[in-house]
Design brief:
Two copies of one chain form a homodimer. Helix content of chain A is about 35%, strand content about 15%. The first copy, chain A, folds into two domains: about 140 residues, Enolase-like, domain 1, CATH 3.30.390; about 240 residues, Alpha-Beta Barrel (TIM Barrel), CATH 3.20.20. The interface between A and B is large, with 38 and 38 residues.
Chain lengths: ~425, ~425
């Protein structure tokens, strides 16, 4: 074969990094000043390098290392086989409780396994696309749209990380009341052109968050709005909020925890419920869909197991009349490119996707992806169409290597204790 | 780009053919002496030709012709876009009744549309694979097995087509009682090495078919057995047969018509129910799976809309704990290759697939596919790994062109009337 077309994996590089994260608030606490991500590079015998990205906490890093070794000698086309590989997940790292910080639903060994594998799948697809001269979307059956719409991801936010804590400065300012939220939303529209808005809630008493959404509705009349308290509410509170905001909400996201409670809220209100906590694995779908607990699944290619599983999920949702959109955790440009490629191939994607990317001032790319009118263009360059900046990668990796270990595992609760000693995540439902 | 890598479609050729079919019996009547198939060829600017195959009746041919024109100028990678194309289906051809001959469940305009599109999808995948030097399975995420198991598809059968009717002779002889069925099964094992057996039932009163399955169980102890009366039975009859054969059946296939009746049979027996009639589209899944009406879906890439939809379906089945295998109508080697490629990529394929291929003495390939130990090897040659025999294609097309129109639309009921004047398909349930 010609150079570039020997698709055998000859090397896999794993680079954990710490990237700056602003002091964004959620029901568990506050984002740490730096958050861990793992950059995966898959190199083929033909000299092609593919990029992937996933969570970088220790529990992801540990199984990623032996998995990297198992890829050597395999073909980058062998994606179904990749997901059949044994991934050594440390069960003690999985607490069968709602995941910290990520707020990605209940932690399970299988979800952890898929979250690791997905970065390797994306890296293989990127390498394959580059080797063949095809964009990743073409490897997924081709794009059905030329741009993918994202929503402005609004957060209650402090002006800066607590005193005495390292961290990069950000220019977003504080947002701790309706006026602050509206101001943040305006900045999002000015900078990136977003036209739909999601507010991360579960931080303040529901009436304050209702007021914030009302203020957004007044400032941006007719624009799609979402509120996501990450399961912090009771069924009764959820029903009340749904009724009070029903006229302005595109959907209410994870107001309560668990399928039975979500089903009850859904049955008692006409507001669609979206989720990235109730349905986060294929195993959770049957009960939730049968009971009508969710109307929109927010997929996340990291924990659903890659771009092809995201497509499977979308088809499944279509068959059950359930909508589909996309969830986001703190992530870098590799994952935004991956999200954009797969989102461009999903016919039934009818809601703007979430992305934390505007909050990330740091990246590992030579050129950041940009939002134009709230949309990311779907590129036709080979692979994901992004290039690693090795100096930046090395810089962010050094930060990880030099960390004393406290920031290598994201812990929003611990970060909150710096400002509020004795803080523990309130038991759900908090309100 | 180098030759072979300009993936723009420059020509699409459609060739309807009539291929010999033995006098196989089913609940609607008997197979015609010749059955129509449509061969699709997609040619790229790079000079690559990809092959696809689907049903060849007039109602498929009509929408295929304008669709062929719409492909010109498109990329063979653009498969999601392909399925978004408007396909002009003649609604008057769709009767919202159980499809003739094919016994593919209720006819709908959408199923007809997908049945046409699927041949173009397969042809595009074949062309893409050839252009890239990759087997089709690699374009589908890679094979997870090196061979795909098929079952022996046993039919009640006359020794020859009725006197005065054209048709090729076959050497299988008649099979009209338990001894004949067992003899046919022995020949299947001798010729192809099959180790599981499906009997197409609904032809004789249930007690005769029970006796045939018992005879198979005695002749092939421990081998997986299936019985498929194509919905000819009542719920009571189905429950009785399930109870009488429960100890030897791998599954019972479509004993009754419709989700409510299937659900009742499933609830009253412990025998898994398989289907290619109750669930044949994504739209039918929700009710059937919610009600537990089916335990195994027999996918068919022709009417489910191609190889990638088959993978979506398999993932959906896995999420609901429903098994998956593969249905077959009369088909040629292009479709057997396509079935084999996609089947090799489905992790949760736990039952041998059906195939009529051993009944087809004629093909359009330079080299027929073969069963070894009942299995077809999954090739690694580019594309589907099959080559058209243009002389054979022309010969079989001439048969179609010279037909007076009677055989261009499969009609097992009309074929039966040649032997039994006045025959009409008995109303279901027949027994």
């Amino acid at each position: 074969m010609t150079t570039g077309l020997d698709l055998t994996v000859t090397e896999v590089r794993l680079t954990p990094v710490l990237v700056a994260d602003p002091p964004l608030l959620n029901t568990q606490g506050v984002h740490q000043p730096y958050t861990p991500r793992l950059i995966v590079e898959v190199v083929t015998a033909g000299g092609i390098t593919g990029y992937g990205e996933t969570y970088g906490d220790t529990k992801y890093l540990e199984p990623a290392r032996p998995l990297a070794g198992k890829l050597i000698g395999r073909q980058v086309t062998d994606l179904n086989g990749l997901f059949a590989l044994d991934v050594a997940v440390d069960a003690s790292r999985v607490r069968d409780a709602v995941d910290v910080g990520g707020l990605r639903g209940v932690q399970t060994a299988d979800k952890l396994r898929l979250s690791v594998l997905s970065a390797f799948e994306v890296a293989c697809l990127d390498a394959l696309g580059k080797a063949l001269g095809l964009p990743v979307h073409a490897l997924l059956g081709g794009k059905v749209r030329d741009t993918v719409e994202y929503s402005a991801y609004l957060f209650y936010k402090w002006g800066a990380h607590p005193e005495g804590v390292a961290g990069e400065k950000d220019d977003w300012g504080a947002a701790l009341d309706p006026a602050g939220v509206v101001e943040q939303a305006r900045r999002f529209t000015e900078r990136h052109g977003f036209t739909s808005f999601k507010l991360k809630g579960g931080v303040f008493p529901p009436d304050e968050e209702i007021a914030a959404v009302r203020a957004l509705a007044a400032a941006f009349p007719g624009h799609p709005l979402r509120l996501d308290p990450n399961g912090a509410w009771s069924v009764e509170t959820s029903v009340r909020v749904a009724r009070e905001l029903g006229d302005v909400l595109e959907y209410l996201e994870d107001p309560v925890l668990g399928t039975p409670a979500m089903a009850e809220v859904a049955a008692r209100t006409g507001v669609p419920l979206a989720t990235n906590m109730c349905v986060t694995t294929f195993a959770e779908i049957k009960e939730a869909f049968t009971r009508g607990a969710v109307q929109v699944v927010l997929s996340d290619h990291h924990y659903w197991g890659g771009l092809r599983n995201t497509q499977h999920l979308a088809t499944l949702c279509a068959a059950f009349g359930v909508g589909v959109s996309m969830h986001s955790n703190t992530h870098l440009g590799i994952s935004l490119a991956a999200m954009t490629h797969v989102a461009s191939t999903v016919p039934n994607l009818h809601h703007a996707c979430d992305s934390h990317y505007p909050w990330q001032s740091e990246d590992v790319l030579t050129e950041r992806l940009t939002f134009d009118g709230g949309r990311v263009a779907v590129g036709d360059a080979p692979g994901l169409g992004v290039e690693l900046d090795r100096d930046r990668l090395a810089f962010l990796h050094r930060r990880w290597a030099e960390d004393d270990g406290r920031l290598r595992d994201r812990d929003d609760e611990a970060a909150m204790r710096v400002a509020e000693p004795g803080w523990v995540t309130p038991a759900a439902p908090r309100w």
